[in-house]
Amino acid sequence: MFKISTIIWFLYSLLRAVTGTFLCICSLQVILFLIMLVMRKRVALTIALFHVAGKVFIHLPLLVFQPFWTFFALVLFWAYWIMTLLFLGTTGSAVQNEQGFVEFKVSGPLQYMWWYHVVGLIWISEFILACQQMTVAGAVVTYYFTRDKRNLPFTPILASVNRLIRYHLGTVAKGSFIITLVKIPRMILMYMHSQLKGKENACARCVLKSCICCLWCLEKCLNYLNQNAYTATAINSTNFCTSAKDAFVILVENALRVAAINTVGDFMLFLGKVLIVCSTGLAGIMLLNYQQDYTVWVLPLIIVCLFAFLVAHCFLSIYEMVVDVLFLCFAIDTKYNDGSPGREFYMDKVLMEFVENSRKAMKEAGKGGVADARELKPMLKRR
Fold this sequence. Notes:
Keywords: Membrane, Transmembrane, Transmembrane helix. This protein has 383 residues and is mainly alpha-helical. Helix content is 78%, strand content 2%. It has twelve helices and two strands, in the order H-H-H-E-E-H-H-H-H-H-H-H-H-H.
């Protein structure tokens, strides 16, 4: 009787969980459908950009390996950082404590080197990630503004790395330093919140969580602005401040298009991650099913799924970067070119079809494409 009641309770709980998940998915799909219905013209641009991004990966296959190089550089730096940390931990005068163990007493300026070392960890890590963004932006910009794709450089990725090292290291360093200035206070507040957990009152806890949330949102916004600033630098060869200003102007003037790309595009990429994780988990279940030695599948299956999600996130993040870079290139292309002789578009045929369809729709509505031209006001400077 106990087993039967337990099974019934388990089935009831499972049914409730499945029903709740189904209702959440249905609600999310309805909301997404309404968003796509209202912003269908801008969603068409998102689809076109995703199509062109696929062609970019065909012509620039080395983009697929970009996460490997970034991860390898991060691992090397973290190994160096840990080695330096061990050296810092053994500096100072050796003193034997009461238990008979040797401790190192650090005095003078060396005792503040810990803070310098921690700031260096955050800054250099962000610097390496920013170098990846600049490299991807430079390669995609080269692809977009080359009319005849047969005339592309032999390795646009290496050419982009060469330009980064020769001209844009200061831009990348400044952008990553701004992220560091926001991340360090957030980490300090998170440390304070963890240390005061259960000791502070409700008001202090609410203030701490609000500050942490605001700094997290600011960090995300600055990350997105920095990424677009690196793209503007790759297009115009301007400094960081000028590029950030130009990129911000583009994002504000094309706010609805940016919202469509970020909402629909991010949702599509999220579905891709879910598909990869589910496929990996299903394959893991099928493989573990034939292993009689394993009695517990949960832990190895969770590890495999987490690793699959990490890999999917790394590679689809590169795809997202390519889409964002293509959008800025599309904006500046429509600013300086109109398709007439001598001012031909650089864009792909898929984006040309989108522009032609938009012009036809505007003419039919009696607006002649003026509204669309207002939405696509890109940078005032060109390389």
